[in-house]
Structures are given as structure tokens and as C-alpha cells.
Amino acid sequence: MAAPSEAAKRRPFGTRLLTDPGRLFQHNAWDNVEWSEEQEANARSKVQENSSQLLPQDKQEEYEVNANRYWDDFYKIHENGFFKDRHWLFTEFPELAPNRNPNQNEVSGYKCSYKEETNNEEPGSCENGHCSLETRAESQLNLIKSMSEFCTEETATQKHSELNQSDGDYPGSSATYRILEVGCGAGNTVFPILQTNNDPGLFVYCCDFSTIAVDLVQTNAEYDSSRCFAFVHDLCNDQSPFPMPEESLDIVILIFVLSAILPEKMQCIVNRLSRLLKPGGMILLRDYGRYDLAQLRFKKGQCLSDNFYVRGDGTRVYFFTQDELDDLFTTAGLEKIQNLVDRRLQVNRGKQMTMYRVWIQCKYCKPVSPQL
């Protein structure tokens, strides 16, 4: 399939394609679609328009207090049929794949020695933070191969010591590689990981504050309590305990989760999650970017605060910038490995619609040595 024309890229958001409606087309997408100044201006204008009327404070408080009920209702209606399994995870986040660096079970700290490349003149580099799917995948695989050079005997000894000093018996305490997915929903991330990654040392935790969602995970035929532990958890409640001790996780996954939380509470949540990471552990995030099609589709009266909206079903969503996410993670003491914008043009040939999506993908790691 050829790339879209310049004229196609300049079409307004969500406009219909003028093609023969009698023909059958498939859904296609293009990575790294640059926006024109006109598109940027149109997007800003649309956001100003749909955020000019804020919901009354009492309604905003109602959505916060009853947030878990709205998500319970969501999963009662959709069960596990709304989201598709995210098999793309292993391209975007090779850290989750079974063929990760073989030394990674002993040494997770090497990742923090890497910093995102800024030289845009190198072949295959990311220009202005926008990378194609293929370029990112190749870069990540090369990164995994090269990072082992940073491993030291001292770091390996430190990691071995940490494992021997684990805090008693807890789910997954004997595992050598632990992953937590926050906001697991019906398990569309957890189960692809369990199906794809047969590492005997792997243990996956997953949580959601919707009891309906956790029930869907636990009753799934693929749920294996010897490799996975699903639990109900309210991230916004500081007193809500995690089943694992601090500094016990290699990976924390946040896929379209942080955006559902009240913006004022985001920093506290990132701080809590960062304390769960081992030195060298990583947070992997993918979430909504500013001016995504979903933001532009909101109507007046659905805005709660700047770039924060409520959907018709009562669930809420925030649209990030790269700098906002960088501030959240670095304030929590994490170091940037990746922070990029993924702009895509999706074309639904059946409905003859063009859709401009904006997502942000991040990787931040906990330093092996305490920051001064």
C-alpha cells in the first residue's frame, strides 16, 4: 500500500475519503505522519472550543468519587470483547519478550546507562521524537544487544544480593523477572505476555480497581496462578497495599491507564510505582497524546479541566504532552530512556474515514545508584 498523498495528510480530522463506496477496502495505517501548520491550528482551535465550557465542580467530584463504579459498568457491558489483545507489545516493548538479553535476569540495571539519541543525522534515527514502528523496533533490538556492554560484575552481585534479601513469602517471590501491569482491564496485555513469554523465571502481576475487570482476568481459561497474580487495587489510595515489596519489580506497564486518573493525583501514583522498581527496573508507558482524534471529538460540556474530559459512560481521559510525562517520571527519580510521539494516520477503508491518532510512548528507568 502506497503512503498517503500530501493532500490526504492535510484532510481535516475524521473526514471521509472520496473513493468508490462499492469497493471493499481494508483498514490501513501509516506511522510518522507529519502534521501541517494548518492541522495543528485546527486541532488547537477545536480543543479551545470543546473546553470552553467546564462541568460544574459538584459533577466533577461525582465522577471522581464514583470512578470505580463507572469502570465496573464498562466491563459489565463489554466484558472482554472491547479491546483486542496487544500483540504489538513485543515490537514496541521488547523488554516483555522471551528473547530479551539473557543476562537481564541477573542484571536489570544496564538499561539506565542508555540515553535517547538526539543525533537526527544518523541512519534510521528518530527525527523530532517521531519514529516509525519499524525504526523503533530495529533500534530497540539493537539496544538490547548492545546494552550488555554496560553490565558490570559489581552490579550483578548487587542484584543477586537483592534477590536473596526479598521480603518473605509473597506471590511471585521465587521469580527472577517480575512484571506488573497496572490497569489490566480484561487481560489484553497480560495474556499475550503469558502466552508469548515462556521464561520459567517470569511472574506477572496485574491489577485494576474494577472488581469486574479482575474477575474477568481470574476466570479466563489462560489464567495460571503459578505464573500470574491478579488483584484489585486503587492506585489513588496511598493506604491500599501492593502484594509485593518495594524494589521487587523489573517492569511496570502503564497502557492507556495514567490518562484515566485525576491529573492532581498522577505524581503521587508515579512516585508509588517507582518505589516498586528494582534499581534498573523500568516503567513502560503508552498513552494518549495532545490533539489525538479522541480529544478533538469531545463536545462542549464534557471537559473537566485543561485537556481532561469525561466520556459518555462516565470514564475519564487526559491527553498528555511529552514534557508533562517527562516531569512526572523525572520528579519520581527515574531517568529517561525513551519519550516519543507516535503520530499515525489510520484509514478505515470500509467506512471511508481518515483518522489522525496521537499517542506518546515512554520508557523510564530507576537508577542503579541513588541520584545525588
Give an overview of the whole structure.
It is a single chain. A hairpin with a 4-residue loop joins strand 10 and strand 11 (353-365). The radius of gyration is 21 Å and the shape is globular. It has helices at 6-9, 37-50, 57-65, 67-78, 89-92, 133-147, 153-164, 190-196, 211-218, 266-276, 293-296, 322-331; strands at residues 27-31, 177-182, 202-208, 228-232, 249-255, 277-288, 303-305, 308-310, 316-318, 335-348, 353-365. It has an eight-stranded mixed β-sheet with strand order 1-10-11-6-5-2-3-4. Strands 7-8-9 form a three-stranded antiparallel β-sheet, with no helix packed on it. Residues 5-27, 102-111 and 113-166 have low confidence and may be disordered. The protein is built from twelve helices and eleven strands. With 372 residues, the chain is of the alpha/beta class.
